[in-house]
Amino acid sequence: MKLLELLEGLEYSVTAGNTSDVVDPATVEVGEVINDNRKISKDSVYLCIKGANFDGHSCATDAYEKGAAAIVAETDVELPKDCKMPVVRVKDTRYAMAFISAAYFGHPAKSLKTVGITGTKGKTTTTYLIKSMLENAGHKVGLIGTVEVIIGDKHIHSENTTPESYTLQMYMRQMVDAGCDTVVMEVSSQGLMLHRSQGFIFDIGIFTNIEPDHIGPNEHKDFEDYMHCKGLLFKQCKIGIVNGDDSHVDDILEGHTCEVEKYGMKEGVDIRALNLAYIHKPGQLGVFFDTEGLINIHAEVLTPGKFSVYNALCAISVARHFGCTQEEIVSALKNAKVKGRIEMVKVSDDFTLMIDYAHNAMALKSLLSTLKDYHPNRLICLFGCGGNRSKLRRFEMGEVSGKLADFTIITSDNPRFEEPADIMNDIETGMQKTDGKYIKIQDRKEAIAYAIDNGEKGDIIVLAGKGHEDYQEIKGVKYHMDERELIQEILNERSVR
Fold it and tell me: Closest Cα to residue 116, out of 226, 236, 211, 224?
């Protein structure tokens, strides 16, 4: 592959080393594209990426000495005076990496229908809903998100909600090779800010909702910056499908270049939900609703609350563009499940037990408020907080649970390098600002067993914080721990007594 082919769509200049001598990129033969200095190889193109803790530009000489075909840089780099290795100068190497990676992997997005979802909440659940609907209609769908990457039968653990552009393009190439015709992906504000999803245009971009989150060092300086980054998706897609009820939807769409469709529960949207009715049976919570507008159906979703309706409306809006029938949509909504997102686990005919990823105050408040609408006998909340993280989160989560839950079980969750008891004491500090009743049980299995053993008829019990995670991180080591397995172990132990 010629260097010129990799640089398609970019503004750049190419010189020999740090001289002013111009190099024709059509004459430079390239073996592979590398963005990790530890993997630089002969005839590779090395992308100098500036990160929070390491600047890849510092490895320019290393790339030269290892025989790299060229480097791509956004700032001056130190090179030997006699170096004639081509240096590609661009304004932003992260932006350039997206286009170079797309070209290197043969522009896989051109062979896929691409659906990108951004928002503070609902991204993960909605990706699975859409995947389920489209597969019901005969499509083969890849998925990229917070929990995992799915390529055919292969499931890959996710490190980032939206991977680096090189990895993203690699996954899409693998999807095309595996016969996928569609990819559904979560697009985080960080991913948009760092150009991870550049290099192609989404067929459909989606906005679920926005609330203040991810604001702080190495993330977003303020809420306005957070909204701006979310809104970048709608300058990078053909059709925008957005939550018309969100108070910030106009800010998100500012300067958009796509067609727009809106869904919601208020008047003036293109697809509207009405006639909501809650489903509440032992071991099962959900909601019925009807839709009007661009599609008219009666839907049943087996996850609780209004936010489940919003997620479903979004998925319905997308499915319409893929030609899904009403029967396919209704069936997919009823049967779709997402690991660790309001995941029901049947343990008793008397009470309802669920697992959810809610791991900050905002998510926990939303979840517990939704469950209170089902008027349980008691709402029981079991959770812990991660070590080496903000103490404020612990105080806030303790206060939220104390106010909304009838009983709280404080336990351990990824203590990392802190003592679990210290973290639990911080949570207790927040609890003590309320009148909420609670107990502290450090061992998570013992805490879950206590919740099950003391469940009463009509209770709703939430195991919050772990969700899809199947480990407990202690002193730098990740130990296997899956709450589903713990529950089964507890039930087996009770059955042999």
Answer: 236
